[in-house]
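Q: How would the structure tokens look for this protein?
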Amino acid sequence: MLFLVIGFICLVVMLFTNKFYVFGGLSIISFFIYFMMVGDGSWVTFLLFLSGIFLLILEIFIPDFGLIGIAGFVLLALGYLSNQNDLWGSLFDLGLAIVIAVITAYILLKKGYTFLPGKSSLVLGTSLQKNRGYSTGRDYTIYLGKTGTAVTTLRPSGKAEIDGKVLDVLSDGNVIREGASVQVIHVEGIKIIVKELA
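A: Here is the predicted structure in token form.
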């Protein structure tokens, strides 16, 4: 049971630090020792368990409506439970290890660690602004300040005719009825925001 707890704690620390190889390796070693000491000691069950954990971690990086996560959970449960001789004792061990891992995660969050610190590099942190040389393909700022007519009711999105062109627009938060006069008050990329003229 000790090695199961150590394995889960190392997994949590791995997800909260940039030391993926160190804590990932320690986690694999701990799980391996646990599987060889407890139950049947089969390589197949250990690899099923490890594959399940890998898929659960992969689910964090690849959003796919939970299919990878469900497959990971099934493999983890199949690998763990088929290795055990005492079902209730093994469920208690697993439950306790998960509780300790959750407490470890809570402590790390309280200490100021962030979940997946390297993942932020996968998301663009700066906006792509026109004055920095980026382009969305079409410049809608030419409509800024221009007036037109709502072609559909804007709740808040809809269509408006401005300068003879029908454009997708957003109201400034209010419902604007079809046929009302509107003015473009803000443009951000392809988002055109209009207000109703009194």
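Strands lie at 147-150, 157-162, 165-171, 181-188, 191-196.

The longest strand covers residues 181-188.

Upvote if useful.
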